[in-house]
Amino acid sequence: MIRIKLVGHAFQYEVFQIASLFYDKSQIHFVTDGESDVVSIFDEDNKKVYCKMANGLHDEISLKESDIKKIKNSIKMTLLRCFKRTTGQDVPWGILVGIRPTKIVHDCFKKDFKDTEIIEYLINEYDVNKDKAQLALEVAKNERKFLDQGTKNVSLYVGIPFCPTRCVYCSFTSNSLKGNERLVEEYLDALIREINFTLEYLAKNNFSIDTLYIGGGTPTSLTAGQLERLFSTMKSHIQLDTLREFTVEAGRPDSIDEEKLRVIKGYGCTRISINPQSMNDETLLRIGRKHTAEDIIEKFEMARKIGFDNINMDIIIGLPEEGLKEIENTMNILKNLSPESITIHTMAIKRASILNQHEYKNKNHMIDMMYENACSASREIGMYPYYMYRQKNMVSPLENVGYCKGGRECIYNIQMIAENKSIISMGADAVTKLVFPEENRIERSANVKDVREYIARIDEMIERKIMAIDMLTK
User: Fold this and answer.
1) DSSP letter (8 states) at residue 397
2) Average per-residue pLDDT for the chain
3) 391 pLDDT higher than 90
4) Is 80 exceeded by the pLDDT of residue 474?
């Protein structure tokens, strides 16, 4: 247990964020009196921030101004330094606990910072280590050409919240197909109703569509006929074959067959994801997948024969009982398959996942090496990092990075992380993001998560979305 006392400020959330980088969340306790292990102090009169620990360690920062952001960052920085010295633990991203580190780099670009100045800024202001600062700069440079603006140029997301089975790490709104066949049809009816109303409104108000992303769940959980119905609805409103990008998450190989792939290809899809997460059969069984690594290879080669020339594959670092040997095996197979992009996730233990219910941790010293192995293997086949984000509750304080071959960036992924373009989202648990660049403002409109509730309240979801989009027309 670690006891923390706050003096002169009430930034408990910020202090908790830093403490949780070093200690289990259940062991962090805030006290107002009595003994404490660490005291975080803001001396407003003298414009100083202190961290004092019972073990004698001390850190302080003098403030030139009482800007609230600077105060918070200084409180986090003093705590970080003391905790690092106490535990001997490295935290590569320093006090950056948000999910979008590259947004800071893009702000630096706007101020005409040189590359060396950006690296120094990340190191000095946030205690980011040099390797991560260089990664953030590299990714931001690769994103930059896709960060075009335009209030009435939007992207679309459509969510399919069904999967063959639920993976143990999954926290998304996802329902098993087994026993839910009727629910799938009812969901598709409601979704198509939302699509029709939304796209009619966008067309009526002269919006143009940039990219389309069909995600989930696993969209290919739908039958070929259901996919045909979904895509034909979309095609009745927009020219799918002229979009800058059209992605479908084909996801799990046990949801893919030749008929479905031909339907997807026939409607102009330019990019699919076939996501193994691991190429080790024991791991696949352990995480709740009912297929083998050989099934993944078979469906990948099937997609190639049908004509898909832009295939992404996701992997996860930190899956149960995986070590360096398993990651090396996964990456060797992926290198041979040579997809156009590989997305490397550091596993995050989400509240709604089965792993969290089982109190899974897996914070082992090998994860950093496993991650570096995956990144190096991606670079060995000519890929570079093009987008990046971080998550809370990762098994190691690393990041998720998308690597791609030249010109194979997923534009939608960049838009989602950069938050530079409005994304109109449809389906259960879909969150519409409306971007107002001139005001540096983002508004969100979320659909309900539960599929049955979404179906029952579909007219409310539509009305809420239309009211939100209407803000972009003014």
Assistant:
1) S
2) 92
3) no
4) no
Distance, CA of 73 to CA of 64 (rounded, Å): 13
What element of type H or E holds 298? helix 293-306
- Which two structure tokens, joined as six digits, stand for 193? 């109703």
| Dist CA 166 CA 163 (whole Å) | 6
Neighbours of 434 (CB within 10 A): 20
399-420 pLDDT per residue, tens:
999 999 999 999 999 999 999 9
- Inter-residue contact 349 to 307 (CB < 8 Å): no
Give 252-263 pLDDT, tens digit per residue: 899 999 999 999
- Reported confidence tier of residue 394, pLDDT bands at 50, 70, 90: confident
Asked if 48 and 59 count as a contact pair (C-beta separation under 8 A), the reply is: no
CA distances from 14 to 11, 62, 71, 259, 390 (A): 6, 19, 11, 51, 17
Beta bridge partners of 433: 423, 444
Pairwise pLDDT comparison (6 vs 252), residue with the higher score: 6
End-to-end CA distance of the chain: 53
Q: Is the peptide bond before 215 cis (omega within 30 degrees of 0)?
A: no
E-state strands within 47-99? 48-53, 58-62
**Would you put residue 287 in left (φ > 0), alpha (ψ -120 to 50) or beta?**
alpha
Burial class (CB in 10 A: 0-12, 13-18, 19+), 223: middle
| Tokens found for residue 19 | 């403490």
Q: How far is CA 420 from the centre of its chain?
A: 16
